[in-house]
Amino acid sequence: MTSGILSRADLDRYLVAFNNNDTPIYTSFYAPDAEMALGPVVCYGLDAIKDFFATGRMVISEHIAPETIIISDHAVAITATITFTARVDIKEPFFDIGPPVAKGGGYTTLFTIFYELNEDKQFKKIYAGRVKPTKTFRAGKL
User: For the stretch 50-63, what's the b/e string if a residue is b when 16 or more beta carbons lie within 10 angstroms of its beta carbon?
Assistant: First the structure.
């Protein structure tokens, strides 16, 4: 099953699936040759993106809360507050987002996410970056 972004309802379906870690649904919006750049991490191809999220979601959950959304025929742009919550103790800094935190702690930060769409309206290129300082919550001693 493949999905594309033809309307705000399609984007909302993607975001609900992403936030609920419904991998078969949210990854159906990615093109097979999708490229994703998240700060220092770059993934090439749908399988690499699936592997990245499968590995990452074992240690942290992610929730995207959009603040601004722009949809065109060729792209989607979102400014969103993203909350990352640790499922386990994170003993090393979490990428360039924040310091180590105990299970249940995490990070809230503002991101801009840009999705370039292919001719089937699937995500072909995804670029995401933090645009404000991160707030760390419930950071515990590890």
Answer: beebeebeeebebb
